[in-house]
Amino acid sequence: MNIKLWAWTIVFILIGGGIMFYGMSYNPLGWFQGFVSFTEPNDEPIPWGLLVIGYIFFGVIGTGVSTYNSLYELFNKNHKGKNPFDKIKLRNEWLAFAVLIPGWIMVFASTYKPAEALYIYLSFRDTSRIAWNGVLYALVGIGIIAEILALIGEKIKEEGKRGYLDRFLAWLSSKTSFEIPGLLKIVVDIDALIVGYAILAELILDANLGSVFGYLSTWVYEFGPFMSILLVVASFYAGIAMISFITPLYSWLRKPSVVSPPSAQPIATHSLGSGNVEPQEDNIMFKILARDGLLATISIGFLVLWWVWLTATNQETFPWAQLLLTGSWSLYFWIGLVLIGIIIPIALYSVAYKKESKGWLFASSIFALLGWFMLITIADVIPQAISWYYSVSPITPPGSTWAYELRSNFNGVSQFTQLPFAISQYDLVWFAGSALFLLGVYTLGVLLLPLEEEEKPKHVWIFK
């Protein structure tokens, strides 16, 4: 039994769950009745607060982890020795599932009346990108769970013997009306199809999230496809960063304390590796993560440059470019995104690649995750940060209620005003609680499921 992992799991699930419970404690019955939200309604001029930023932040990380891991799995299906993540691929998929959990939580917590929001799906409107977000989140979750089952079934099939998990499944199947091992066999037989489906659903979700922001009324038409591309690339940027954060951390937490007696035959331990991964394979894995993280960060840098160029060279969006480059958001842009999110990760990933170092890789991932948070915050807030002044047109067509035209600069007044952005205390409560909760959920899966090569759960009573 790994005391560190058990302590981590219990502490973070209790703390994260407790914080979220505090966030809804003032009126939980009102939420179930559809009268109030989990959080205080955000009545700021920019209504989309931290929870909307949060569900995109975690959702894109989760899809990125799964897509990145699945692509290596799919293209090395018949050559597993070439897949650097083969021994931890199941663990990576569980990580993707765990990261999606706070995204799902914050989707409902950010809704003004979550219970009433169910009508979006009861009377589904196929022209609503928001409604499609909910459907795609569910489809992605189904795909990841199916991948996890397929990988577990593949492990049972490869072992060719009945272990703890297989005996548990046999016991469970005797208590139910269906044969779980048989279903697992079917899942294993179509695992390539499942992986392909999961990748497709994840990429569509990322693109749809981008389109929600790209087609806001404050953007010109060109930003619709651009924002979809940005979030698809950002899924790799953020997903690789999350794997690069968790894998070294997991390696340090899982270091065994067994020491071989001097006179005895040396015992093969993996104190320098990530779980059951040999140190040599560990270094190769870290090097590939550093290489791919470097490429993803360079791609994000190019897209950010493209974004600024599009904004600054279009007269309709030039005011937003001013906010980014020289206005009130310039510090967040230049320090938070360009320096912390792009320049520093490029430098650190390069060193990690050269030295095959998990320490440098871990440091790189922290800056990349901070950069991803700043990127999605800016992409969320900037399109809404300006409110144009309008006047009733003197040539309003008969029967029309309103017709709008921009005020002219010649009348001596500004055409627009900048709207403030604020984060409520309950937004912070839910974001922090969800982030801590996902860490506990991740290690709970590590403890309950055989997430690594040749690993069986030996210390959990339900598998004995």
General description of the model:
This protein is mainly α. It has 3 domains: 1-214 and 425-464, no CATH class; 273-382, no CATH class; 386-420, no CATH class. The protein is 66% helix and 3% strand. The protein has helices spanning 3-24, 28-32, 50-75, 89-109, 114-117, 119-122, 129-159, 164-174, 180-189, 191-214, 223-253, 279-312, 318-325, 330-355, 358-381, 425-448; strands at 386-388, 390-392, 404-406, 416-418. It has a two-stranded antiparallel sheet. Strands 2-3 form a two-stranded antiparallel sheet. Helix 3 crosses helix 11 and helix 12 runs antiparallel to helix 14 (330-355). The two termini are 14 Å apart. Mean pLDDT is 76; it is low at 175-180, 257-272, 390-397, 400-410 and 457-464.
Summed up, what is this model?
With 464 residues, the chain is mostly helical. It is built from 16 helices and four strands.
Draw up the topology in text:
Blueprint (H helix, E strand, L loop, with lengths): L2 H22 L3 H5 L17 H26 L13 H21 L4 H4 L1 H4 L6 H31 L4 H11 L5 H10 L1 H24 L8 H31 L25 H34 L5 H8 L4 H26 L2 H24 L4 E3 L1 E3 L11 E3 L9 E3 L6 H24 L16
Antiparallel strand pairs: 1-4, 2-3
Helix pairs in contact: 1-16, 3-4, 3-10, 3-11, 3-15, 4-7, 4-16, 7-9, 7-10, 10-11, 11-12, 11-15, 12-14, 12-15, 13-14, 14-15
